[in-house]
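Structure (tokenized):
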């Protein structure tokens, strides 16, 4: 019997990832934190996108959003496997 950590990482959907990278390219990198979060499958990618749009115009808000996008995935629980 083994214990396995389960993270909050979401499945990547190609259409969503392509849309976010297109938006990041069209805004000259302004939406880059949102694209990184979506590509990495972060569970809070939507919140990072909202933070980026709302406070990304300040350099501090953009850096905070990028830091959240590049951060670790949270631990959602344990799974018991045989």
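Design, position by position:
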């Amino acid at each position: 019997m083994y214990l396995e950590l389960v993270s909050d990482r979401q499945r990547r959907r190609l259409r969503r990832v392509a849309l976010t990278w297109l938006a990041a390219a069209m805004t000259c990198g302004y939406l880059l934190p949102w694209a990184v979060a979506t590509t990495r499958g972060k569970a809070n990618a939507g919140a990072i996108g909202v933070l980026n749009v709302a406070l990304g115009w300040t350099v501090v808000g953009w850096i905070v959003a990028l830091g959240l996008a590049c951060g670790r995935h949270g631990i959602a629980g344990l799974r018991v496997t045989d």
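Reviewer-requested clarification: Strands lie at 2-7, 75-81. The mean pLDDT is 89.
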